[in-house]
Amino acid sequence: LTGLGDTVMGTLDKPKNPEARDSAALTRSVPFGLLVGWEPQLVLQLAVECAAQTHGHPTALLSAGALAVMVHGLARGETLDGSVQHALGLLAERPGHEPVTEALKQALGTVRQGIPGPALIESLGAMDAAEEVLAVALYCALVGEDIRHGLRLAVNHGGPSAATGSLCGALLGALHGETALPPAWLAELEGRATLLELADDFAMEMTQGPALHSPSAAAPGWLARYPRA
C-alpha cells in the first residue's frame, strides 16, 4: 500500500520500500513468466522492475525475477530442474544474487535428504523472506508426487503457507497445465471466472496489444474495461 500510495514510480536505482524483503512481490511476478515469446532476460527484468514498485530489497527483487524465469521456462516446455538452472544462470549476472542463489540451491539439495514433511520444509525457511518462500515453493513442487501432494506439502507447515502454496501452485500449474488441477478444488475456487478472464485478458494484451489500442485501431469494450490500457 505504501509503495503504490502515490504517483511516483519506483526504479531499480530508487526502488520503493528498499528494506522490504517479504514475499508479496513474488506473488505478482508469475504472469511475466507466461510471456513465452519473450526472451528470459527481459522476463526477469520486467519482474524485477515490477517488484521495485513495492519491495525494494535486492533479495526481494531478484527472487521475483527468478520465479518469473522459472515459470517462463516451464511454459516453454523445460523441466522444473532445467528452469531452475536457467534462473540460476541469469541470477549469476546480477549483483546481490547470492542469497537467492543459495536458497534455490538449498531447495535442490534438500530433495535428497529424506521423506518430505514439515521439518524439512521449515529447514528451508520458516519466515516470510522472499528467498525462503521461493525455496519452500520450489522444494514442494520438486518432491510432490502429483499436484495434490505438492500443494498439500506447500501449505501444511508452520511457515507462511499462503505464500508458499500460491507459488508452488504457480510452478505446478505451469509444469502440468490447467487440466491437471484437481477438478473438485477448481469447483470450489472463489472468483474462478474472474481469474480466468483476467488471465486471458493479460495474455491478449501482451500478445495483441496494438490491435486493441493504437492510433489506427481501438476496441471500445477493451478500453472501457481497462481505461489505462
Structure characterization notes:
With 229 residues, this protein is mainly alpha-helical. The chain has two domains: 23-180, ADP-ribosylation/Crystallin J1 (ADP-ribosylglycohydrolase fold); 190-229, no CATH class. The protein is built from eleven helices and two strands; from the N terminus they run H-H-H-H-H-H-H-H-H-H-E-E-H. The protein has helices at residues 40-51, 58-75, 80-91, 98-110, 118-123, 130-143, 147-155, 161-176, 183-187, 192-212, 220-225; strands spanning 213-214, 217-218. A two-stranded antiparallel ribbon has the order 1-2. Strand 1 (213-214) and strand 2 form a beta hairpin. The longest helix is centred in the C-terminal third of the chain and has 21 residues, at 192-212. The model has no long low-confidence stretch (mean pLDDT 93).
Brief characterization of the structure:
The protein has helices spanning 40-51, 58-75, 80-91, 98-110, 118-123, 130-143, 147-155, 161-176, 183-187, 192-212, 220-225; strands at residues 213-214, 217-218. It has 229 residues and is mainly alpha-helical.
What is this structure's SSE topology?
Blueprint: H1 40-51, H2 58-75, H3 80-91, H4 98-110, H5 118-123, H6 130-143, H7 147-155, H8 161-176, H9 183-187, H10 192-212, E1 213-214, E2 217-218, H11 220-225
Antiparallel strand pairs: 1-2
Helix pairs in contact: 1-2, 2-3, 2-8, 3-4, 4-6, 6-7, 6-8, 7-8
